[in-house]
Design brief:
Number of strands: 38
Largest sheet: 5 strands, antiparallel
Structural class: mainly beta
């Protein structure tokens, strides 16, 4: 989930003073009125600044990477803004500089020298600012389409579905956007709990200012063959962007984004219809075991997979369930809920997905994803037939959303469509701008009902291999709650 930099009280006061002359801030009461009873309730205002971090794309010399940046359109007259994504180095150069909302911009980089990025947006370009990197590697261990949404820097990340097994290489990418060093800890939890690190190598990992560092997970626990594990990344000092790049011999590679925050109920949206193998990985961070009920939300409703209706997960341990070809030709989303609502324990989760067979297999991941909330966006969608599929899921209640396709990086007219979702279902659609050229952004807005969860599958086949990547959409938190000002004219007569 994106974390937007909050407005400081001083900034709010200054902004409101500029608008109202001489103003006094009042605190809203529980009923929405001001504390003085005069009815000045809190308002939602656009954020003034957003931060994003993108990992380094690839170590392959034949990698082809596309960067895309986009801010959803804003009404005319809302002011100016700026946004820049820079290479994560001391001598950083701008890679992307969008100029106005509603129009995506893109850039390309080839080879292993494509940089990790850090950047910020302010003014009219800040609310909902989104960036994406998509890398295509045609051959080798890391072959595949690797997609990652750039994220806000943070201090706590969970990565279920990592591995240190033979034939698998998982690297944690840590990018520090700030001017001070960050200090990071990484813990690995397997089926028997916390894996013993090698001589403290997983603690106090220094990430220099304006730089990125990669850590091979298997190097932290030499000799431990953890086929399925959960990585917990935390900071002792500073903040970082964290992502895992996983490659598996004969199956390809992709990014594994962090799971949604621990929760008793989770949604893993957008498992492809033609998934040949689906493996669920769940971890319980707390002290109580979790008993979970599994349901697959498809186009016709939610069903319990035969023979895989429930999963027991011990506290502090990673559990796995092989769901095989779960979707069986229909797109779906996995719903995890407590088997007993009175004994709910927070969990994190992700699924490893494989499409194809034999030498034509391709790997991807679908982590638990938060709801789209008021609005969410994913960048770098492609207009080619069947390249972009958006999955929308309403796990608990009917809902209606509006989906908008922006112009492409090379032009075109935006297109929009309203979609009504029945509770417990997943629907898919492919929407592109009229006459669009280049990549474009998809924005989902909740109109009524909800919550709604969403994910985008980008498919770029290569020589018969169904290369793909899945990115979840989460609330962009483009507005913050700000107390209204009650004008105090008495100061003029003091």
């Amino acid at each position: 989930m994106k974390q937007r930099a909050p407005l400081t009280l001083a900034a709010v006061t200054a902004a409101l003073a500029a608008l109202t002359g001489i103003a006094a801030l009042t605190t809203p009461a529980a009923d929405g009125t001001a504390a003085d009873g005069k009815g000045a309730a809190a308002a939602r205002m656009p954020v003034e600044r957003s931060l994003l971090v993108c990992p380094g794309p690839s170590s392959s010399d034949i990698a082809e990477t596309t960067y895309t940046s986009f801010t959803p359109g804003a009404p005319a007259g809302e002011g100016k803004g700026s946004a820049r994504l820079l290479g994560a180095t001391k001598d950083a150069k701008a890679v992307l500089e969008p100029k106005e909302p509603g129009k995506p911009v893109g850039a390309t980089a080839n080879g292993a020298d494509a940089p990790a990025l850090t950047g910020s947006a302010d003014g009219v370009l800040a609310p909902g600012w989104t960036a994406q990197l998509t890398t295509k590697v045609s051959v080798g261990r890391a072959r595949g389409v690797l997609g990652a949404g750039c994220t806000a820097p943070g201090t706590d990340f969970w990565f279920p579905a990592v591995s240190t097994a033979k034939g698998r290489e998982d690297y944690v990418h840590l990018t520090n956007p700030d001017d001070a060093a960050a200090v990071v800890d990484i813990k690995l939890f397997g089926p028997d709990g916390l894996a013993k690190p090698d001589a403290g190598t997983s603690e106090s990992i220094r990430v220099d200012p304006k730089s990125t560092k990669t850590v091979l997970l298997s190097s932290l626990v030499p000799g431990a063959q953890l086929a399925d594990a959960t990585a917990h990344v935390t900071t002792r000092a500073g903040r970082v962007g964290a992502s895992v790049q996983a490659s598996e011999e004969g199956v390809g590679a992709d990014w594994l984004p962090a799971s949604a925050d621990p929760s008793a109920s989770l949604v893993l949206p957008g498992i492809p219809a033609d998934a040949a193998s689906v493996r669920l990985v769940v971890f319980v961070p707390g002290e109580e075991d979790a008993d979970l009920k599994l349901r697959l939300a498809g186009p016709g409703g939610a069903i319990s997979p035969a023979g895989s209706e429930q999963l027991h997960v011990k506290a502090g341990m990673t559990a796995v369930m092989d769901l095989k070809d779960l979707t069986r030709g229909e797109p779906g989303s996995l719903l995890l809920t407590p088997a007993d609502a009175k004994k709910a324990a927070p969990v994190v989760a992700a699924v490893r997905v494989v499409r194809g067979s034999g030498a034509k297999q391709e790997l991807g991941f679908v982590p638990a994803t938060g709801p789209v909330g008021a609005r969410a966006t994913v960048a770098d969608n492609r207009p080619e037939k069947d390249a972009t599929v958006l999955a929308l899921t309403a796990p608990t209640a009917d809902a209606k959303v509006k989906v908008t396709a922006s112009p492409g990086t090379g032009g075109g007219e935006p297109a929009s469509q309203e979609v009504t979702l029945k509770a417990g279902t997943t629907q898919t659609l492919s929407l592109a701008p009229a006459g669009g050229k280049g990549s474009y952004a998809l924005t989902v807005e909740t109109l009524s009902g909800g919550p709604v969860h969403a994910a985008r599958t980008l498919s770029l086949p290569h020589e018969g291999i169904a290369m793909f990547t899945v990115q979840g959409l989460s609330d962009d938190h483009s507005t913050v709650s700000v107390p209204r000002a009650a004008q105090d004219l008495s100061v003029l007569t003091r």
